Amino acid sequence: MDNKQNKETKETGAKKSIILGVGLVVLAMVLLAASGFIFFGKGEDIITGQAEVDEVRISGKVPGRISEFLVEEGQRVRRGDTLVRIYSPEVLAKLEQAEAAKAAAMAQNQKAIVGARKEQKEGAYELWQKAKAGLEVAEKSFARVERLHKEGVLPAQKYDEASAQLRAMQATERAARSQYDLAVNGAQREDKLAAAALVARASGAVSEVDAYLKEGALLSPIDGEVSEIYPHRGELVGTGAPIMTISDTSVVRVLFSVREDKLASIKKGSKLRGTIPALGGKAIEVVVTKMKDMGSYATWKATKPRGEHDLRTFEVTTRPTSPVEGLLAGMTIVLDKGQL
């Protein structure tokens, strides 16, 4: 009787062990399938973007040495504020040369306008009067010779000599009169125009150098914030070399990189919602303003030989629908799930 009970007990324990083993195997298979679904299943993509602002680089037209910074990084500036001063001795030397050339041109122009000096005018007048007196004498002499020649008293040679003398004195008088008129009237119209053109050219050279000289003090073209300063005080900078960057914080945009199979639900003007981790998960709403292909470098390659194709990535530009306090360039924006 005892042997029979012992046998039944052993059989019952064996059945329980088998059932327990099968249950453990089934449980292990369920857990393995669940973990595979969790870790290897296709989950929903998280799409993130980055905030950016417009930036303006400040650079000068003339080379020189940084003599003074009037702002520092992080400082707010207004349009027209002086940011930096550049000392350029070469430009100052060019200005002296241009001003000297202008002064010389103005003197030539004044000389052309005024004409000859008083002494020159008086000298030309005296020569003219002398020629007039000689002409009067020649005219009287010719009249006497002509009368005597007609009367047959003087030969033809004397008449010819007196006639030639008269013509010579007439020419001398005209020449003296012309010299006097030139002294009184000054330079010709063309000479005056040429002198005036020289003054205009010299003035233009001075204006050009003045413009370069003004570039020694660089002004802010926008309202914004000084985000970065590159050289140090005392360093040399070349033409067009960037000196600092001004960020226009009033123009904020958020850029997302979205695979093309996620674009079906958005278009220009669509509104998207997200959060800003850097601001404690603060909510933000943005509106799509532009969508463009990012190029072949951002293409998603298919992993299977069949059934899949390459997908391109598009850059989606958005702007906040309302200002977000504390939003800075470089902060990440995470789109809420289910929008794309």
TrEMBL record:
It holds the Pfam family BSH_RND. It comes from the Bacteria. Gene3D superfamilies: 2.40.30.170, 2.40.50.100. Transmembrane segments: none annotated. InterPro entries: MdtA-like_BSH, MdtA-like_HH. Residues 55-244 form the Multidrug resistance protein MdtA-like barrel-sandwich hybrid domain. Residues 129-178 form the Multidrug resistance protein MdtA-like alpha-helical hairpin domain. This is HlyD family secretion protein. It comes from Porphyromonas catoniae ATCC 51270.
